[in-house]
What we know:
The complex is a heterodimer.
Chain A: E1 4-6, E2 10-14, E3 19-25, E4 30-38, E5 45-51, E6 56-58, E7 62-67, E8 72-77, E9 86-94, E10 100-102, E11 106-111
Parallel strand pairs in A: 2-11
Antiparallel strand pairs in A: 1-3, 3-8, 4-5, 4-9, 6-7, 7-8, 9-10, 9-11
Chain B: E1 4-7, E2 10-13, E3 19-25, E4 32-38, E5 42-51, E6 54-57, E7 64-70, E8 73-78, E9 87-94, E10 100-102, E11 106-110
Amino acid sequence: xxxxxxxxxxxxxxxxxNSIINCAYSNSASDYFIWYKQESGKGPQFIIDIRSNMDKRxxxxxxxxxxxxxxxxxxxxxxxxxxxxxVYFCAGEGGATNKLIFGTGTLLAVQP
Amino acid sequence: DAGITQSPRHKVTExxxxxxxxxxxxxxxxxxxxxxxxxxxxxxxIHYSYGxxxxxxxxxxxxxxxxxxxxxxxxxxxESATSSQTSVYFCAIKGVSGEAFFGQGTRLTVV
Lengths: 112, 111
């Protein structure tokens, strides 16, 4: 079946450094991807999305890169701040359904 | 919170009892989803709906049923709760651009 997975369960970075969170997916039919941020005790919050007809998309301090050839996407956070500490999920959707399938998440810990 | 309300926010129930969780939206969106979140598993799709009375199974649908009799409400029912269904349940709606917005979650404990 389709799956979306993350390479590392925990990422520790220094405040001010750039963070890169990676994600791999298995379904070649996936054509829409979203990154979510989840803080403790809250629901996931939308960060940025990208469709398969793009390979890069930028937001405020965040960039998502999509490599369809190797079925990989990444979330880059510039100048990481303590408020960025959270669990980050990638999710993919596509094919004949509107099912949004999530990866297991990466915990980003920002050290002061 | 993108107009999504989940109720109850917390519930403790006994094994074997039926439980219904409610998701209510004020956005009139077509797609609604139920996920469960457990340590080490991330968010797993239980069921989703693509319109009134139109639903389909997700990855972990066994032991769960859903109903959607009107656009704004999507109900998740555990017919006979088991300890393995202790989890945090999230409802989501799909926005016009495709992104899903989540509710605050329901923490369910089955004892």
